[in-house]
Amino acid sequence: MSDTKELTYSDVSEHSSKKDLFLVVHDKVYNATSFVDEHPGGEEVLMDVGGQDATEAFEDVGHSDEAREILDGLLVGNLKRAPGDPAPKTEPAKPSTSTTTPDSTGLGVGLYALVLLGGALAFGAYKYLQMQSSDKK
Q1: Mean predicted lDDT score pLDDT of the chain
Q2: DSSP sequence for 6-30
Q3: Full-model pTM
């Protein structure tokens, strides 16, 4: 897109109806009018953020790569922020990586091992005490 349009927040806010719906995600302006009826989450979701910054709502849902491709096809231009405009909702999207980190799985495995070890020790103590009480008889 060589001649990218720049729209102000005021321009975007004028497009908040079902038949004319713009939204902003990461300071890019998208025309979601043609997608309102197709949106898997229902039209209400888009209508709630129509004419405003939808970055936080978009990222909170965790959209798929396919959804991001659809969004790219709806691009109208970039948001030109002016003094007095609402601040961006979140930081720009980072490339998606693995959702699990080595630390996030370590606690589950460690806890499992601790419970298993505790059970083995308890069983050993039970058998030892049982053997001690049978020797005294």
Answers
A1: 82
A2: EEEHHHHHT-EETTEEEEEETTEEE
A3: 0.61
